[in-house]
């Protein structure tokens, strides 16, 4: 079976992310210093590395040697979150383009209170976050405001202005740029 190019060449570490040093270096520095935030907002044009960077951040946070800016690539978490890996039970990726309603948000909110099964953190990656409905964001608001210590949200979007302001104000925003040819 053919593998899509974006999956085949998806970066595995922050060092592999091309042209986004203004995002990856501050993230690496924060992780190395132990400054883990409970919510991140990655914004930028399609194909610039937002979702890949979200997976790398989850990998860095849950590496057996970490949290570390340089995941080992060998532990269960690193293997599961590798570019072609199957994922892990503690990292949930939600495509808000098809699962952005209030029921999906409530289900995510209810799952947030469970402690991680195998890792240090439960990480919720919400891709296409601008597609979450207002009711969906409102269902997540309380958990984003006062999350358990083990929970990290990463919202990835091409349109940060469409993310509910009360959610956006509680995130650390990292704007990605399109890489020039």
Summarize the structure.
With 181 residues, this protein is an alpha/beta fold.
Q: Any idea how many domains?
A: 1
Low-confidence stretches are none
Q: Give the overall shape.
A: globular
CATH class: Alpha Beta
Q: How is the quaternary structure best described? A: single chain
What is the number of helical segments per DSSP (H or I, 4+ residues)? 7
Which series of helices and strands comes N to C? Answer: HHEHHEHEHEHE
Biggest sheet: strands, sense, closure?
A: 5 strands, parallel
Q: What is the CATH architecture annotation?
A: 3-Layer(aba) Sandwich
Number of strands: 5
List the helices and strands and how they pair.
Elements: H1 5-8, H2 21-32, E1 39-43, H3 50-62, H4 76-80, E2 91-95, H5 102-111, E3 122-127, H6 134-145, E4 151-157, H7 165-168, E5 172-175
Parallel strand pairs: 1-4, 1-5, 2-3, 3-4
Helix pairs in contact: 5-6
List the main descriptive attributes of the protein structure presented here:
181 residues; alpha/beta; five-stranded parallel beta sheet; 15% strand
Structure description:
This protein has 181 residues and is of the alpha/beta class. The chain has helices spanning 5-8, 21-32, 50-62, 76-80, 102-111, 134-145, 165-168, and strands at residues 39-43, 91-95, 122-127, 151-157, 172-175. It has a single domain, classed as 3-Layer(aba) Sandwich (Rossmann fold), CATH 3.40.50.300. The model has no long low-confidence stretch (mean pLDDT 92). It is globular and about 35 Å long. The relative contact order is 0.21. Helix 5 (102-111) links the parallel strand 2 and strand 3.
